[in-house]
Specification:
The protein is an all-alpha fold and 257 residues long. The chain is built from 10 helices and no strands.
């Protein structure tokens, strides 16, 4: 019987497809300065490009939730583009030149375990970690406020633009964000400081960059989950799958509840 294309070769570790997870960090070592500068430069370029687009289209003063239908797709491209270019430059200049290797981009069948991890994180974990804040600040952390941004995006998308929303939120964002925050920042920051510190710093970084106080507890907790997936497997497969499942579940909740 032929072996499944997803199965690791005989004798290899089922989580890594090769050497044990604890020994698989063989990529180039990017310094903290390279990590921080690359992220900042990419973020600034993305912000400037988005601002120029909004200004050129007369939408610079629009209110949150009132964005034109095309804004989600265009803003995603203007945000992801600089970060992906930044990663390519870093890989070629400071790394091995192998994008997948430098940023731990690989997948194994076991990574599908990320599906229940993402679903449970969205259904249970987010509510659990948000609950204390809801008790202390009931108006600020009311469920309607926590899900407001997702609901605004969904309510503003119809037909073709709903497809764009799904592509951006369910597939594009998880892939790019995991590349940046787990594959790049976490994967190489951990080589400069200890693992636990890298995990927590990246979780704070990831949650904070979304710029939504009401979403911070849930995103921070979820970032710890996908960061742990990355730590255990030393690749992005499981964290990407978990992130896809997390976002898809959130979108379904907004759509049907």
């Amino acid at each position: 019987m032929s072996q499944s294309p997803w199965a690791p070769p005989f004798g290899e570790d089922p989580y890594t497809g090769g050497e044990s997870a604890s020994n698989q960090l063989t990529t180039s070592d990017f310094s903290v300065r390279v990590i921080v500068f690359t992220w900042l430069a990419s973020y600034v370029v993305a912000f400037v490009v988005t601002t120029i687009i909004l200004g050129a289209t007369g939408n610079i003063d629009m209110d949150t939730g009132q964005e034109p239908k095309w804004f989600l797709g265009v803003s995603a491209i203007s945000l992801w583009g600089p970060f992906l270019v930044g990663l390519l430059i870093v890989s070629n200049r400071f790394g091995s030149g192998n994008f997948a290797k430098d940023f731990f981009l690989s997948f194994r069948l076991i990574d599908l375990a990320g599906i229940p991890i993402g679903v449970v994180s969205q259904l249970l974990l987010v509510g659990l970690v948000t609950w204390p804040f809801r008790v202390l600040f009931p108006e600020k952390f009311a469920p309607d406020n926590v899900e407001k941004r997702a609901r605004d995006l969904f309510d503003n998308a119809h037909g073709f633009w709903l497809v764009v929303l799904v592509v951006v939120v369910v597939f594009g964002a998880p892939i790019v964000e995991e590349l940046v925050y787990r594959g790049f920042i976490h994967g190489h920051l951990r080589q400069n400081i200890n693992e636990l510190s890298a995990l927590v710093i990246v979780a704070v970084w990831f949650a904070g960059v979304h710029l939504q106080v009401v979403e911070f507890p849930g995103l921070f907790a979820f970032a710890l989950v996908v960061g742990t997936c990355f730590h255990l497997t030393k690749r992005l497969g499981m964290s990407v799958v978990a992130h896809v499942a997390f976002n898809a579940t959130g979108l379904l909740l907004v759509a049907y509840l």
